[in-house]
Amino acid sequence: MACLSNLSISVSRPNTTISQSPHTSRPINVSIATTSQSQRFKPCCSSSRSLRSDPQHSLGRKFISHRLITARSSATMESTMDVVPLKIMISGAPASGKGTQCEFIKSKYELVHIAAGDLLRAEIASGSENGKRAKEYMEKGELVPDEIVVMMVKDRLIQKDVQENGWLLDGYPRSVSQATALEELHIRPDLFILLDVSEEILVERVVGRRLDPVTGKIYHLKYSPPENEEIAARLTQRFDDTEEKVKLRLVTYHKNLESVLSIYNDVIVKVDGSLPKEEVFERIDAILSALCQKKLKTDSTSSFATGVAH
């Protein structure tokens, strides 16, 4: 997702004037000479998607690329585009609702969603060099080394769609070695979202999960029960969705998490993941919107000053 400043442009008479509101949140109007046509860039477009059918819960506006038109002189004009994409990491324990929140964030902000596991499988399927190296370890029943996964993430983050739209890194890094490797490559998020859910609730969510082997749909005996008895009769439980095993997974998760958080301490925001999923996203949305506005304000001020200096 890229942020767009409130900047409008009209082309009309043979003169150049720049007027700026004393309040940085107000639009900047720039009139620039030309001979025949006029055009206006609108700051944003409305989203038709919503989390609920109630219009009060509409996902609202999407930010798009920040376009800056800089006047080089009274006779000429150069047009440049400064894209300010968001860079977000999100972490959460098993059953914290991280996957659901990633879908909400991706839907509204149009960030490129990157999950290390999906990336690993895609690289192997494509037959890339990193994929071939990873496959060798997996075929031997060994864990894929961090340096291979980190390079996969790096290669994905430099692709055009990510550079233009920003990224949402899902559940990665998971260890201090992975986080340190990303830091060395100068890959750092604007924000690290941590979904905070108590162990009691996490265990309840995991133990109650059931899978429909026919449709692949996931149910929960308490929170999302099957529609009828026929479906209920065929539901199965994953072998590791037991209280004993989920508690072991949580021990590993929290052990690794503490070391990762120490690296991102200055950009971490904790969100209560025990709330209903819509309420969780409302809080995340407010945080991301504020971050985007902050980036816009900083970039707009910097770009305007640069344009005037020239």
From TrEMBL:
<dbReference type="InterPro" id="IPR033690">
    <property type="entry name" value="Adenylat_kinase_CS"/>
</dbReference>
<dbReference type="InterPro" id="IPR006259">
    <property type="entry name" value="Adenyl_kin_sub"/>
</dbReference>
<dbReference type="GO" id="GO:0009507">
    <property type="term" value="C:chloroplast"/>
</dbReference>
<protein>
    <recommendedName>
        <fullName>adenylate kinase</fullName>
        <ecNumber>2.7.4.3</ecNumber>
    </recommendedName>
</protein>
<keyword id="KW-0808">Transferase</keyword>
<keyword id="KW-0934">Plastid</keyword>
<dbReference type="Pfam" id="PF00406">
    <property type="entry name" value="ADK"/>
</dbReference>
<comment type="similarity">
    <text>Belongs to the adenylate kinase family.</text>
</comment>
<keyword id="KW-0150">Chloroplast</keyword>
<dbReference type="InterPro" id="IPR027417">
    <property type="entry name" value="P-loop_NTPase"/>
</dbReference>
<dbReference type="InterPro" id="IPR000850">
    <property type="entry name" value="Adenylat/UMP-CMP_kin"/>
</dbReference>
<dbReference type="GO" id="GO:0004017">
    <property type="term" value="F:AMP kinase activity"/>
</dbReference>
<keyword id="KW-0418">Kinase</keyword>
<keyword id="KW-0547">Nucleotide-binding</keyword>
<keyword id="KW-0067">ATP-binding</keyword>
<dbReference type="GO" id="GO:0005524">
    <property type="term" value="F:ATP binding"/>
</dbReference>
